[in-house]
Specification:
Elements: E1 3-7, H1 11-24, E2 29-33, H2 36-45, E3 50-54, H3 62-72, E4 78-82, H4 87-95, E5 99-102, H5 107-124
Parallel strand pairs: 1-2, 1-3, 3-4, 4-5
Helix pairs in contact: 1-5
Length: 126
């Protein structure tokens, strides 16, 4: 089973993103975290296949978390989700080989990331 790690300090944002993911990939399970430390604890204990990370969080931001995940899991599909559309943030996400998804997350906005991730995960498992 494919597991998505959904990290956002806003419970409402996690619900909205979770519904969009469930609508597009109903067979995937979701694990939620409200910050970077919680997320890192989860990936140590669970088999996580892809991550959807909020950019603005207390403590470490989503790009810092993405960098840590990228070191430990070089091939994990990662999306950075934010309403902050600064070119610098988009460029840093790309440097980390992460997909940029604009908030609020909708089925339409996350569809490309999820279908690309599904394809990469299938290739990795064959």
């Amino acid at each position: 089973m494919t597991t998505v790690l959904l990290v956002d300090d806003s419970k409402l944002a996690r619900i909205v993103a979770g519904k969009a993911i469930a609508a597009l990939q109903p067979d995937w399970s979701r694990i939620e975290a409200s910050n970077a430390d919680e997320a890192l604890g989860i990936v140590e204990k669970h088999d996580v296949h892809l991550a959807v990370l909020d950019y603005n969080m207390p403590g470490r931001d989503g790009l810092a978390l993405a960098a840590e995940l990228r070191q430990a899991y070089p091939h994990m599909p990662i999306a950075i989700v934010t309403a902050n559309l600064q070119n610098e943030i988009i460029a840093r996400a790309r440097e980390l080989n992460a997909t940029f998804v604009e908030k609020p997350v909708t089925e339409e906005s996350i569809r490309g990331f999820l279908s690309g991730a599904a394809l990469r995960l299938r290739k990795a498992n064959t």
